[in-house]
Amino acid sequence: MFRRPRRNRQSETIRLLAQETTLSTHDLIFPLFVTEGTNKKIEVASMPGIYRYSSDLLLKEIEECLQLGIRTFALFPQIEESKKDSHATESYNPEGLYLRTIREIKQKLPEATIMSDVAMDPYSSDGHDGLVQTGKVLNDETLPILAKMALAQARAGADMIGPSDMMDGRVGYLREALDDEGFTHVSIMAYTAKYASAFYGPFRDALDSAPKFGDKKTYQMNPANKREALIEGELDYNEGADFLMVKPALAYLDVIQTLSENFPIPIAAYNVSGEYAMIKAADRNGWLNGEKAMVEMLLSIKRAGAKIILTYFAKEYALLCQRK
Ligand code: PBG
Questions:
Q1: What is the pTM of this model?
Q2: What is the Å distance from ligand 1's center to 226 Cα?
Q3: Contact present, 307 and 267 (Cβ < 8 Å)
């Protein structure tokens, strides 16, 4: 036997030399939830260790994360039911929770990079990502609303916008709207292959943003499809997206690989709420070692071809790196 693969596994040092994939806190984006009020920190029942923060405590959390080496944050708002309407008008109200919070973060912690969410669902009385009329989610009529939202976020100081709505043509539409107002420097991280997934359950609990009727299958992708992700990728790439995202991550590693092999821009993967909840639940039951499962899962997402991972584990991973 000349070729003995075990030689490269014989010690921690040699294993590290032979290690193909590494994971740094610089690869991570931490999703955060903001809610109204002051001095509030409310745990999301289905996401142990993840909280909805009022903006004052959110700032403290971001400051702590910055010190741990996490620099980018994807912010999502929990909007009061009374402020929701069919046209998501609260989404571009400059005095609304979300835009106020972005301004405050960028003012007090300018070194934090903020990725904002562009989709109607947190503000929509229908709980859908697009405009609903007679039971249908309209595409072209949604685009101007998304553009108002994206512009308001750019004015508030967002560094990167994340269209998560899956309407056709929105990346190009938003790019043009941003450029027309002089926001050529604001990046777009496109939710390119976003699947109609059961793994978003805990997130919808966190924001009370579940659809009021039906599901999201007429705009989010069919979990059975991979080749279709190439169409979405080509559109977003040609419409000027700076990053292409796959979401969820763990059940879609093949899609991550396909996009990373076909497009020369960085690929991101969203390690979603349900993926976080699964590991936390099993860990709490003593069924597996949550910390080890976390590292293995995050590494597998990078190995598949993601450069960036949006994950609720970001802070926990950064703390683990600090202990080592
Ligand atoms: C909606 C949105 C969702 C998530 C991010 N933006 C849920 C959905 O599409 O219903 C899910 C994130 C997660 O589960 O962690 N625009």
A1: 0.97
A2: 20
A3: yes
- Does the annotation mark 84 as catalytic? no
Q: Does residue 77 have a cis bond before it (omega within 30 degrees)?
A: no
- Residues near 287 by Cβ (< 8 Å), separated by ≥ 6? none
106 a catalytic residue: no
Pocket test for ligand 1, best of 164, 192, 276, 310 (most atoms within 8 A of CB): 164
In short, whether 204's Cβ falls inside 6 Å of ligand 1 is yes
pLDDT digits (tens, 9 = 90+) for 86-124: 999 999 999 999 999 999 999 999 999 999 999 999 999
Chain CA centroid to CA 28, Å = 10
pLDDT digits (tens, 9 = 90+) for 212-264: 999 999 999 999 999 999 999 999 999 999 999 999 999 999 999 999 999 99
The distance from CA 305 to its chain's CA centroid, rounded to whole angstroms, is 17
Q: How far is the C-alpha of 128 from the C-alpha of 215, rounded, in Å?
A: 8
DSSP string for 111-173: TSEEEEEE-SGGGBTT--SSEEETTEEESTTTHHHHHHHHHHHHHHT-SEEEE-S--TTHHHH
Catalytic residue among 83, 84, 216, 247: 247
Q: Is the CB of 129 under 6 A from ligand 1?
A: yes
Does ligand 1 have an atom closer than 6 angstroms to the CB of 207?
A: no
Contact 55, 101 (CB under 8 A): yes
> Could you say which DSSP state residue 221 is in?
B
Residue whose CA is at the smallest distance from ligand 1 atom 2: 164
Position 56, amino acid = D
C-alpha 216/C-alpha 199 separation (Å) is 13
